[in-house]
Amino acid sequence: MRQGNTVREPRHRTPESPGGYRLMDPRGTDAGIWGGKSTGSHGRQLMPGNVVRRGRLVRHGSIAERDHDVPLLERFDDENAPPVTPKEIKERWVNFHRQVRLMSGTRLQRTAGRILGEDTWRYATARFIFRPAIQLLRRVRKSVKPTVVTKAAASKTAEIFPVNYRPLRVDFALALLDMPYDADDVHVVVIDETDAQPADIVSMINTELNETSAEWLFLADSSFSTDMIRFAVATLLTQASPRDDVVFGDEDGPNEYSPILKSPAVGPHTLLSYNVVGRPALLRVETLFGAGGFSAEAGWAYEHDAYLRMNERGAHFRHVAKVLPGGRPPAGFEAARLNDDTCRVVQRALERRGWAGVATPGPLGGLVRWRPEIPTPAPSIDIIIPTRDRIDLVRQCITSIEEKTTYPNYNVIILDNDSVQEESLAYFATTAYTVVPCPGPFNYAKIVNRGVEHSRADYVVTLNNDTVVVTPDWLEQMLALAALPDVGIVGACIHDPDGHHEHEGIVVAPYPQHLRTDTNYPHVDHFSLATRDVAAVTGAVQMVERSFWESLGGMDEQLKVVMNDVDICFRSQMEDRYVVYTPDARLLHHVGSSRGKLDPIEDRNRFLRRWGIFASFRDPYFPASLLLLGEKMFYFPR
Rounded to an integer, what distance in angstroms lies between the CA atom of residue 41 and that of residue 43? Predict the structure, then answer.
């Protein structure tokens, strides 16, 4: 039986107990503690954050004693790495393109693949001969008969994400027969939040936390059946290791056809934006105690607040890429209930980090727009713009910077890669900005590195000459993040000239591609709207502290045209500096206007070999069960 896709059984409720919670034993009767052992009640209401430990605890060492330094990224091009042959690289490409054709290709492509063979000279020849005719036919059909999408069809498409996701019906009682576990390991608290106040719930959970001798705590909503809760607990427990402090799964969410899929790693900046952990989750009791338990002052954001404090203490989070029952109730996503409390806990998290800033409600319930203050005095910023001629683009780009930008302390450095047009040379001779000659064949990485060498600013921004500034405070938004001590590179939201999203971070699933909520991620959720940690951002707009850029050795000039921007983002993370995307800095991009169709396969193969793409690489900050094939997201639980 495939796990991870579930349909909820009919939910049931039990009579409410004082404070809106109840405890259930493994047999489904209301009989004290559901798993774990109690040392008895002392008739005392414990203050959140002032929890006293009683009873036995199975310990696997403190956070400091446990090894958490497991690399999220790994290079495969050093002298100790096994060699990757050209044949293996070719096979990776073939398998990837086969997946794309099978999942996202047209019916004609799939039929031809079956008849002629996917990886044969016959298929390649047929594709070469007939592709121009098919492309022409598509253009004619598009111009003559535009596609009309009805409201009903659009609504249904928006409700199902990923496109192939269908919840499976699971007999949880039957599944549990093959999933034995020790109930004493987990203390399950079933909560009914319908009429309760969060302060009462937190106080009672902390009391139970104080009394239990179990290793793990599991919070579940009362609307889930006993078997559903036990199934979620057992599934997570089988994946838990001694080094884990929180083990959490994907959840159904308010819409069972659009589950909440989570990433393998909990990005600390994403966690400030929203509760990326949620439920179902096992929390190590000892670690939770070390973080102060749950706080009544956090209101309905008490779990989010606990995850933030545990994350600050270096807790290790393990994600289980299965959609499990035992998640949050629908009310747990309501803006009216969550927003004020969530902003308050995020504001306090910023203060604990020593980051002056503000947290305001975002467009969805529980989503926060947080922005640290920029350093004072205002750091200097050099905006580095490479170009070869195309002064029409350069002038448009710089005019937008001058007319829109509100940040005062910036300069522009133009990198001239062998421009020859008289208009270009005249512009360079009269501009007030620095022009740095960068002669030789087009090598984006080398050109940008030369520009940074000529900079004396605190921060540099790489900016394509075919971009246009949209948000006046774009530099402030990016600098506020780039100046954080744990951030290496910051990227922005980019639109095309028609206003469609072109770049909202780069995801590697399984190949690096731009996330675009207008096309390949047509789903409005917390993830798509958040300031978040990402695997990479495009070099079309990147901000980085100049000294950090230099410590990385700049861009790899062996990656001459493509993947140099993604590569430096990966290397930043290997130096413990995060890459962060912000949706609040926006620019337009006339994609490909300057580079044209340059796209050397040598660059891509070198990148694949270095980072294990199509092999062991997993994007730390994108759901592990999502694959981006063509323009569609597919669900493949791992």
Answer: 6
Side-chain half-sphere CA neighbours of 277 within 13 A: 31
The tens digit of pLDDT for each residue in 211-227 reads 999 999 999 999 999 99
pLDDT of 17: 33
pLDDT tens digits, one per residue of 248-274: 999 998 888 999 999 999 999 999 999
73-82, 400-409, 491-500, range with greatest mean pLDDT: 400-409
Buried b (16+ CB within 10 A) or exposed e, 128-156: eeeeeeeeeeeeeeeeeeeeeeeeeeeee
Residue located via tokens 């069972």: 256
Q: For residue range 506-562, what is the model confidence (pLDDT) as tens digits?
A: 999 999 999 999 899 999 999 999 999 999 999 999 999 999 999 999 999 999 999
Rounded (10°) CA dihedral 139, 142, 143, 144: 120
Q: What is the pLDDT of residue 129?
A: 67
Query: What contacts 361, CB < 8 A, 6 or more positions away?
Result: 335, 339, 340, 342, 343, 367, 368, 369
Burial 6-32 (b: 16+ CB within 10 A, else e): bebbeeeeeeeeebbbbbbebeeeeee
SS3 call for 546 = helix
Work out the mean pLDDT of the chain and round it to a whole number.
Answer: 84
DSSP per residue, 18-48:
GGGEE---TTSS--S-BSS-B----S--PPT
Rg (CA), the chain: 27
> Do 23 and 189 meet the contact criterion of CB atoms below 8 Å apart?
yes
Backbone angles phi, psi at 27, to 5 degrees: -95, 0
pTM assigned to the model: 0.85
Q: 200: part of which helix (H) or strand (E)?
A: helix 198-211
Look up residue 262 and give its DSSP letter. Answer: -
Residue the block writes with tokens 């912000």: 582
Nearest to 77 by CA among 565, 622, 567, 576: 567
Distance of CA 155 to the CA centre of its chain: 25
d(CA 528, CA 449): 32
pLDDT of the residue at 113: 54
- Supply the pLDDT for residue 180: 78
Query: Which of 277, 235, 241 is CA-nearest to residue 260?
Result: 277
Q: Which residues contact 291 (CB under 8 A, 6 or more apart)?
A: 306, 309, 310, 312, 313, 315
- Angle formed by the axes of helices 601-611 and 86-104, nearest 10°: 100
Long-range contacts of 259-263, Cβ-Cβ distance < 8 Å, separation of 24 or more:
259/165, 259/167, 259/323, 260/327, 260/525, 261/321, 261/323, 261/623, 261/625, 261/626, 261/635, 262/319, 262/321, 262/623, 263/319, 263/619, 263/620, 263/621, 263/622, 263/623, 263/624
Strand, helix or coil for residue 343: helix
